[in-house]
Specification:
heterotrimer; A alpha+beta; B alpha/beta; C alpha/beta; A: alpha+beta; Cytochrome-c3 Hydrogenase, chain B; three-stranded antiparallel beta sheet; 12 helices; 47% helix; globular; C: alpha/beta; Rossmann fold; two-stranded antiparallel sheet; 5 helices; 7 strands; disordered C terminus
Chain lengths: 360, 124, 166
């Protein structure tokens, strides 16, 4: 048995712009145990329910995370809408789907870029982010914001996408698809990239299930779970199947996310093809919510649970956001066991950690 | 058109002493712990442990309502992935959870204020 | 902007931001917006950094980290607060764990507004920071030539002086 030592990893670190600290117990060069300590970004967002009313909380919820911002707002709004029992207008449901998928695309492209940076392929990092800028341009054109949209309100959305804009989106989707095919060659077929990803950080299907993993992290291990199948927003009317891989290693995670970008492109095309012409974008709600609901939405990083408990006053009793990275933390600790120290940076990245979500 | 599955959420209110039995039962049914959270409502804590079925997309929530000083057994021995949820409850709400598999001792987020979302200081 | 005489290095730290501004800072540095054309370079090492870019508000845990990073940077230095959270605390100002903007622990020179701050605004902030850095460096050089002690420069944080000198 070699000598055991503890290496502190983080909080300011090479692969992520966000701070997370992990204590790595290592024996020689192998990691025996990983103990994460979070809290550098803890703000106490959930406590704001005492000071903001339920309409304002939609904007606060959106600022849980700047990457999956739209989906946070949507998850919160759907939960409150469910308590009210209001029906969101059809066009608003489709608009939400389009924005959510644009968000997923830019999040996955961002992740691919960071992954490339993580294994030292800087050129690829810039290429992925260049493609991502096209998606961001679409978001800016339709909502006015690059990352934080603020288009969700309780009962629907406040902005519409015009027909001309839809055509521009479709055209851009074609361009992105072409560029993605070029990127895919490197990400999935390049020899040196494969040697960094294959067989590293394996999580089996059983482990992924037992540890409560979510999203592409779980799907890469063969757990076929995708909250979009619950049919919130307009997903119930669109045709798609969760993308699953069985290998459970870093390469499988890369593969799943890559394929999900194509899936998002396809979903946006379907949604634009089916979107009903309608002038109402939001159903007005009257009074205050009373009741509780667990809403689950599929974010780019996985299943997010919104728990909203209201008591008939403008201020909610409790809002709780269980974010996907929080659910993936036990999986991360398990994955880091028995890996080489030099792979840690890359492995932390493969769960697509969003620390500001995790700590709120 | 794709088939969608959206069953209603199920809420089971249980007393605190059968929490472990119920969790074990859910685990044996092959459910995944989706989330666990606490709320402080009317001088009582409401703990919710949600178990998700990944095939039917059904969400079953175990609801435990306890007084302020009740001792709650940790479910981490049965469901190891609950460790972060329970540490969070303990730190933010000041719930007395015992037998955690990895106890951060209220230092998960390392906040200065004690139990900021639990009972207000004036009442205590 | 006058001729660039120096090439300051840039350190980015995420306070308690929502990620939006961090990603925009990164996006501003990638070739699409290319803030690096103004001579700055992103670095992860505070000991070699000249411009400190901070996003997000300050909370009780990262207050120490931010102070430490600031102290580790050599003088002269410029601090840029990116995004409304780093400026004032923003939407999270009322949260129990937020102390306020970045200026609650370190002196901030340039405030970049926005939620999330747009890359164009960030580039503007970088340009201003480069100018200010040039100005401060000139003053600093003059002080050194006159035989003054550079660590007595006016941008030092009072209560941390002893720590950084010792």
């Amino acid at each position: 048995m070699g000598k055991r030592s503890i290496i502190p990893y983080g909080p300011q670190h090479p692969v992520l712009p966000e701070p997370i600290h992990i204590d790595l117990v290592i024996e020689d060069e192998r990691v025996i145990e990983a103990i994460p300590s979070v809290g550098f970004i803890h703000r106490g967002l959930e406590s704001l329910v005492d000071k903001r009313d339920f309409n304002q909380m939609a904007y606060v919820a959106e600022r849980t995370c700047g990457i999956c911002s739209f989906q946070h707002g949507m998850g919160y709004c759907e939960a409150v809408e469910h308590i009210f029992g209001v029906d969101v207008p059809d066009r608003a449901r489709y608009l939400r789907t389009i924005w959510a998928e644009l968000g997923r695309m830019h999040s996955h492209l961002l992740w691919l870029g960071l992954l490339a940076d993580g294994f030292g392929f800087e050129n690829l990092f810039y290429q992925a982010w260049r493609v991502r800028e096209k998606v961001l341009d679409m978001q800016e054109m339709t909502s006015g914001g690059r990352l934080i949209f603020s288009v969700n309100v309780i009962g629907g959305v406040i902005k519409d996408i015009t027909d001309e804009q839809m055509q521009i989106i479709l055209k851009t989707m074609d361009e992105v698809e072409e560029e993605l095919k070029v990127l895919q060659k490197t990400f999935l077929e390049d020899y040196s990239v494969q040697s960094r990803l294959h067989g590293i950080g394996i999580i089996t299907k059983e482990q992924a299930h037992d540890l409560g993993c979510a999203g592409p992290f779980a799907r890469a291990s063969g757990v076929k779970v995708d909250m979009r199948k619950r049919g919130y927003a307009a997903y119930g009317e669109l045709d798609f199947e969760p993308i699953v891989s069985n290998a459970g290693d870093s390469y499988a995670r890369c593969y799943c996310r890559m394929m999900e970008i194509y899936q998002s492109i396809d979903l946006i095309r379907q949604a634009i093809g089916k979107i009903p012409k309608d002038n109402t974008l939001a159903t007005p709600v009257k009074g205050n919510p009373d009741g509780e609901y667990f809403m689950r939405v599929e974010q780019p990083r996985g299943e997010a649970v919104y728990y909203v408990k209201a008591n008939g006053t403008p201020n909610l009793e409790r809002m709780r956001i269980r974010t996907p990275t929080f659910a993936n933390l036990p999986g991360l600790c398990e994955m880091l066991k028995n890996t080489e120290l030099s792979d840690i940076g890359l492995l932390v990245l493969t769960i697509d950690p969003c620390i500001s979500c995790t700590e709120r | 058109m794709a088939e969608t599955i959206c069953p209603e959420n199920i809420l089971e209110e249980i007393p605190v002493d059968i929490l472990l039995d119920k969790s074990l039962e859910k685990k044996k049914q092959g459910l995944r712990l989706s989330q666990a959270c606490a709320a402080y409502v009317n001088d009582k804590y409401e703990l919710s442990y949600s178990f998700a079925n990944d095939e039917t997309y059904e969400l079953t929530t175990l609801r435990v309502v306890i007084d302020k000083d009740t001792v709650v057994p940790s479910i981490t021995e049965i469901v190891p992935s609950a460790v972060f949820y329970e540490n969070e409850m303990k730190e933010l709400f000041g719930i007395n959870i015992v037998m955690l598999s990895m106890d951060y001792e209220d230092r998960l987020y390392r906040i200065e204020q004690e139990a900021p979302m639990g009972p207000k200081k004036e009442e205590a | 902007m006058a001729k660039v005489k120096r090439s300051p290095w840039l350190l980015h730290y995420d306070g308690s931001s929502c990620n939006g501004c961090d990603i925009e800072v990164l996006a501003a540095l990638t070739p699409v917006y290319d803030a690096e054309r103004f001579g700055v370079m992103n670095t992860g090492d505070p000991m070699q950094a000249d411009i400190f870019m901070i996003t997000g508000g300050i909370n009780t845990q990262n207050a120490e980290v931010v102070k430490q990073l600031y102290d580790q940077m050599p003088r002269p230095k410029v601090v840029v607060a990116v995004g409304v959270c780093a400026c004032t605390g923003g939407v999270f100002k009322d949260c129990y764990n937020i102390l306020g903007g970045a200026d609650s622990v370190i002196p901030v020179d340039i405030y970049v507004p926005g939620c999330a701050a747009r890359p164009q605004a960030i580039i503007d902030g970088v340009v201003k920071a480069v100018e200010l850095f040039q100005q401060r460096s000139d003053e600093h050089d003059k002080l050194v030539k006159q035989g003054g002690r550079p660590d007595a420069a006016k941008d030092a944080v009072k209560e941390d002086k002893e720590v950084s000198n010792g």
